[in-house]
Amino acid sequence: MTQTAETAPSGMPRPATRPADDSPVKPRPFLAAWSLAWREIIRFVRQRNRVIGAIVQPALFWVLFGAGFDRSFAASAQGGASGQSFQAYYFPGSLMLILLFTAIFATISIIEDRREGFLQAVLTAPLPRWSMVLGKVAGGSLLAVFQGLIFLLLALTLDIEWSLTRVLLLTLLMLVSAVALTSLGFVIAWRMESTQGFHAIMSVLLMPMWLLSGAFFPIPPAGDGASLVQQGMHWLMRCNPLTYCVAAARRLLFDGAALDAWQTPDQWVCWTVACLFAVTMFAAACWISAQRTSGDLL
């Protein structure tokens, strides 16, 4: 006969005790990354006013600027040669503006998490830093793609031949661009201790970066007869990685002579630069997360 429970000296059975487990807890980086990404999604659902800032404002810009600049765009050399309206030209730029705004709002949470002490608790966990970066970037990128898909419904009002392949490629491009922009926002926000400093950097870096991406006006020609300012702007826009994200979206949405009139880079060049942009920014975010912070850059 075997004994099934221990008994106390008084005859009362002792409560069952859990055997001691001295094995170390194995870190699960991908589970931690998914938990952080899910937290970003939950925060977004609970802060619905972020939808207004991320979707309604670019959509409002698209409608108002499209109506206001349509005649001026048609009278210009590049706009007249393309035969497209300004709303059609401006649509890929508005799509990237939504991704940019979502990246900004998502990475501002890094500053808030540090101020509230949540980030310090995450950093003390026995996890690699890339796990924390992956969670923050994945959460912001998924939200950006979701909002971009909602805005993409407005493209049904444009003269575009839709197909499943085109929609899937656009979704993949939005994901790559969102990873690049969210990682860039992470790099900037990691050194910040105040949201005011982040907004200052956003005004002098991120918004000019978007304006010089071909989102609002085509790349000016740099051939004979071009002024020094036009040549400088031409090469500045050519060196801007966001230019190729906008151009890739434009090539997926439109085809024909309009792309040549707008000096749109080739598709394979656009995808190559966009992927390199995303990989470089994510690597930079992982690197800077291992550095110590001392205060705002400003």
Automatic annotation (TrEMBL):
Annotated region described as Disordered, given as residue ranges: 1-24
Record-linked InterPro entries: ABC2_TM, ABC2_TM_bact-type, ABC_2_transport, T7SS_ABC-Transporter
Tree of life domain: Bacteria
Membrane association type: Multi-pass membrane protein
Chain ranges of the ABC transmembrane type-2 domain: 49-292
Entry-linked Pfam families: ABC2_membrane
GO molecular function, a single term: ABC-type transporter activity
TM region positions: 51-69, 89-111, 132-155, 167-190, 197-219, 268-290
Compartments in which it is found: Cell membrane; Membrane
Cellular component, GO annotation: ATP-binding cassette (ABC) transporter complex
Record keywords: Cell membrane, Membrane, Transmembrane, Transmembrane helix, Transport
Family stated for the protein in its record: Belongs to the ABC-2 integral membrane protein family.
Protein name stated in the entry: Transport permease protein
Organism, scientific name: Lignipirellula cremea
Lineage, uppermost ranks: Bacteria, Pseudomonadati, Planctomycetota, Planctomycetia, Pirellulales
Gene behind the chain: ybhR
